[in-house]
Here is the input.
Amino acid sequence: MSDDVSAPSDATDEDIVQDDIVKELSHEEFDPYGTLAVTGMYFLLLLVLYALMYFVEFASRPSIIG
Amino acid sequence: MTFVDHYPKATRVIKAAFLVAFTALGLGGFGGLLQALHRTDTVRGIISSTQYYDVLTGHGVLLALVFTTFFIVGLYQWGISRSLDREPENMTFTWTWFWVMTVGTTLTTIAIVGGLIPGSEISAAVLYTFYPPLQAHPLFYIGAAGLVVGSWMAAADWFWSFWKWRENNADESIPLQTYMVLFTMLMWYISSLGVALEVVVLLIPWSLGLVTNIDPLLPRTLFWYFGHAVVYFWLLPAYFVWYSILPKLSGGRLFSDSLTRIVFIMFLLLSTPIGFHHQYADPGIDLGYKLWAVISTLLILLPSLMTAFTVISSMEHGARQRGGSGYFAWMGALPWNRPAFVGCALAGIMFAAGGFSGMVNASLNIDMLIHNTAWIPGHFHLTVGTASALTFMAITYWLLPQLTGRTLKYDKLALAQPYMWFIGMTLMSNALHRAGLAGIPRRVAEPMYRLVDYDPPFGTVDEMQWQVAVGGTILFISLVMFLVVVVANWSRADETAANIDDTLPAPLSGAEHSPKILDNMKLWVGVAIVLVLLAYTLPLVDMVMDGLFSPGAPPSPV
Here is the structure.
């Protein structure tokens, strides 16, 4: 094994995740739009939290400019 | 046949490293429970408010330095042996670094525990950051130096294996796991030089009484030269797991080999020059140096966000191969009933939340809102305390069978453990973050709840205290569950079970698509050194111009 890639195990493993695969997806067949959705949601969350920081710092408190 | 059958010598040293790591985890975790109960006024009397600082030092050092470093050397020895297909080159050398680290750890632990023994001359209540003029017994510093030097020797061992492999594989790309190990350790060599200089040149002579006074700023600066990079020394092994093993646990394949290499290069370049962002509130450092740290720190968000993309897309690939569909519904197709996957995935979710609080810490202006408050432990319990620690615990469930030849027993307990950790950390960390926004200080045994009228922007102080105490208790229970599973699965099987799966699938876009320049270690180390010199030369010259130990402060406690 001179690489990270191992050949499929010769074990008859009922516990390995690979047995749950219902279809093999190659690089060309895989379009990660779910990743776009999840990271997009994270980006929106960051924007909301950043906006929240404004209220924590300034809202309902006197600021240095009164 | 699994790892233990192919590499029995490496297995022994990996298990020895894990044994030290998990012992430190148990002891340090118990310290965390005591702190959570004491500081929130839930249970008083087990430790005094003076002993709190000894316990806090033990918690920080045993978890953030000892548990992490020993687990990492075990994990990385596994990665090197399997990806290069080699046993260590010389077992005497391999066991030497293990024992240098272990003896160092023992000395440091003796110094810390000494503080809890009445009448003891030895103590080290200097917390994990050991800022002078707080002074510890010399054993504390000498032991810490041993731990770091041992880890350098471990890295040298892995480079040795790599060079031997290279003799017969001159034109091949560096195997991806080896690549991640070597780039982590190159970063570690550059960054830990700072703490080594601090400890050996300044703190050991001072603690031995060879000099009386110490300049508080210079050692602090050398500490933080190392102190942010050490965060990546904890995180990159978690990334190693997320990039090389988690795709397989998800039922998929790594999205891109080259993206992985680029991310590790960026951490090598940017981990060390950003240490000043821990010193935004320190006097004696010009604002210009701090602004440079802001820019570099925000830049280092990039490889973490690239990691988010690569890791999530690799998991999505697995989910779709398992029949998942939709924009969000695919996540339901992931194996949420397998402990190794669950721990890594929950650790990643927690890390995303820590990413937000880290952005606040990185920003010079809003950092002032939360500097030295409970927000900071709220943040790093999401990063090192979950992203790293929970990943390490989870991947142990997958690695241990390979080291013993025994399929995992107590798998239901193992499955419940990461969920428990997630719940406990959600309670504790959200409360610590909000307590920080209210101005409640970190580190102290007595946060003066009755003398100071805190004004929390969300919730109440009582409710936050309750969440910290309950969250801390759940975390400790989760930790005990982990240790029970480890103990039950520790011994070597008489005969290796047939169904231990230790294979890793090839990336979707493999090393054949990675530019050769990504493997050029000399180039990237050169750039990393230039960036360090740009960030640190002038400020360090400023600090040493008036002498290494002046302006000097006397040690504390006197």
Notes: The interface with chain B takes residues 1-9, 11-18, 20-27, 30, 32-35, 37-39, 42, 45-46, 49-50, 53, 55-57 of chain A (CB under 8 Å). Residues 24-58 of chain A form one domain. Chain A has one helix and no strands. The two ends of chain A are 69 Å apart (CA to CA).
